[in-house]
UniProtKB/TrEMBL annotation:
It comes from Aegilops tauschii subsp. strangulata (Goatgrass). Residues 1-26 form the signal peptide. This is GDSL esterase/lipase. Keywords: Glycoprotein, Hydrolase, Signal. GO terms for molecular function: hydrolase activity, acting on ester bonds. The keyword Cell cycle does not apply. The lineage of its organism: Eukaryota, Viridiplantae, Streptophyta, Embryophyta, Tracheophyta. InterPro entries: GDSL, SGNH_hydro_sf, SGNH_plant_lipase-like. Belongs to the 'GDSL' lipolytic enzyme family.
Amino acid sequence: MAAASSRAKLLLTLVLLQALWDSAAPACSIDAIYSFGDSIADTGNLLREGPVGFFSSIGSYPYGQTYRKPTGRCSDGLLIIDYFAMALDLPLVNPYLDKSADFSGGVNFAVAGATALDRTYLLQNAIIMPPGNTPLSSQLDWFKSHLNDTCQQDCAKKLAGALFLVGEIGGNDYNYAFFQKRSIEAVKAYVPLVVKSIMDVAKEVIELGATQIIIPGNFPIGCSPSYLALFSAAGSTDHDERGCLKSYNAFAAYHNEQLQAAIGDLLKVNADVSVVYADYYGAFLHLLDHAAVLGFDEGSLLKACCGAGGEHNFDMDMMCGGLGASTCADPARHVSWDGIHLTQQAYRAMALSILMEGFAQPAESVQGIWSC
């Protein structure tokens, strides 16, 4: 009875939150979004660069099937950034490389596969990545070029009314290293450098006039079907009560702790700027823990919807969209889309949690941004 009562209360809360979302008046204080990051936020830049490797099929079905067309998003549909834009009564944020797009509501510089660290540094450390990687520094250069083209004067005034999304980024720096069999202890050495790269971009956009910034943390990668398929060992004691890999989740938590500390330091010298930490880690675990109430199939929480079989429906040699892969009947019932990225429904649930359920701090800054 207690479990049923708890589920009923949570369901009522979600209904009320959705009502608030749907009834929001179009009077937000934000008039544009500028986004930097990787595949978690890319709305079509890599597609226009020419996707290769893991991402070679993002421009064709089944990618985009829920949205009814492939857009270059690494999902069956929309992403967290899309729900952020809708909650601000803004248009979806177009990719920078779509030169015919309307950028009046902001620009998305995020690129699937991007790293926080520059390609040269990673190659010097023997970390191989797909060709054409567009790191965070290159995305910042794109942003500056965009400003030069659109607001030679009064840029600071324009940026003061915008929301900056710096990340999620850094996940690929770690993914490429882990997928090449680097140890967790070895990859930990990159964390301070990754965090510094993120903070350098945050500092630079503040200098240019940004006053409202969201910096997301890393996901609990130990719950990703890709990590579970690649790093689960028979008889291992590394799995937690959810079935996730404790060691890799601890690594993600370590990154997030370092990132939050750096945000705290940033705020000490920029007290007039609103910097929000978006807890993607906590929001994702919250989703898993309340999956049934949210409409997800509890038997497939750690399985990809689109994949090629196995316990987690993930095979690095037969990725979603390729030969041998198939797609589940109802992506809305799945959390993971392709073993690395999430479904539209999962991103929607996370966006709601971040905006309305305390998975972004400080809460007063979140309320100030989404003051609709």
